[in-house]
Amino acid sequence: MKQELLRKDILKKATRRDWTEENGVRMGFHLIEKNGLTMRLAGVWGFCYGVLYAIEAVYDTLQKYSDKKIYVLGDLIHNPHVNTELQKRGAVFLDPDEIDRIEPDAVVVVPAFGTRKDIFQKIRDRHFVSVDTTCPEVRTVEEEVTEFSRSGFTAVIHGKVEHQESIATSSFADHYLIIRDTVEAAQVCRFLRGQESRESILHTFARAHSPGFDPDLHLRRIGMANQTTMLMNESLEIFEMFREAISARDGDTRNFHAMKTICSATQDRQDAVGRLARQERMDLFIDVGGHASSNTRNLAITAHKTCGVPVYHIERADCFDRNAITYLPTDQPRPVTQRNWLPAPPVSVGLTAGASTPHSELEEVIQKLLSFF
Fold first, then answer.
1. Nearest partner of 23 among 11, 39, 10, judged by Cα
2. pTM of the full predicted structure?
3. Residue 69 is part of a domain; what is its CATH number?
4. pLDDT (tens digit, 9 = 90+) per residue, 17-38?
5. What are the strands, taking DSSP E only, across the chain?
6. Under a CB-based contact definition with an 8 Å cutoff, are residues 349 and 284 in contact?
7. Confidence of residue 8 (pLDDT cuts 50, 70, 90)
8. Could you give the residue numbers annotated as active site?
9. In terms of domains, do 148 and 86 share one?
10. pLDDT given at position 231
11. Is 330 in contact with 311 (CB distance < 8 Å)?
């Protein structure tokens, strides 16, 4: 199964720096062509090293501890099909808050997103055999947030309050505030400038701050970090908004610290989509990956902002046929279905896949598109 998740034949040939032609399909230089269909692959796509490590670690754990129950604390990665496959192999997925239900001789797997600080403590206290697959990039953010607290800074995290990674990362801070986007950032910056009330901050961020959070006290010194899968440009914009607001309030930036913690894999994939969108003409763009995947969704947003063509974020090949496609719009929380989505040839399609998307799922999308032409 591990090998099935990796790249298949068409993707291997399409990414070579020479041309291969088979059965009327021409492949090479990140291009796939057939009968008026041109598919253009982004320069970087699919599994990152952190996701691949987490998956391999669980497979190895299932084999090594075949006589024990293997519990994964939350989703291992944000790809429902990978998680389902691991469940079929015997892994049990459990909410971290249910850790007290786990039998003493079980094995506990910490997912790629990490887990809360108090859950790590429970793992130690109960002497579980544990496998920590926390991505090294996420671990770096946790360490930075911990250092903020030691230095008396409140962690302001650009992230999604409901996301496993932001839940985990924020738990390493004594005081924190989680900000989703530039709109929420602007509200907090108005507060820093004395233009917004304390009550409005507490109301807007009721679910996104640490216990006992007091804006007047805890926003005096701010350390900025971000969920590693957010849009890099948006994170940098938010960091600059806070730097300017604190400078305006204090006359300097001694009470401001920022760490750019977008992971390299996330940034590489966003940059590759941006380059493809700027350099090539396309009629539409397909982004393959789980709808709960933040990094995959942000690839779709990057494509939408850069291309100016329809962008379809789909989970896998069974989300579309010739006549209709079910996808997650960049500005809506739930999937929608669109008919007559595929133009007549000649048609140019941009393709990418999130860091938690198996190469096999992108290959299946390509195979299905080829079957239409």
1. 10
2. 0.86
3. 3.40.50.11270
4. 999 999 899 999 999 999 999 9
5. 20-22, 25-28, 31-34, 37-41, 70-73, 91-94, 107-110, 129-132, 154-158, 176-179, 222-226, 256-258, 284-288, 311-314, 324-327, 336-339, 347-353
6. yes
7. low
8. 165
9. no
10. 87
11. yes
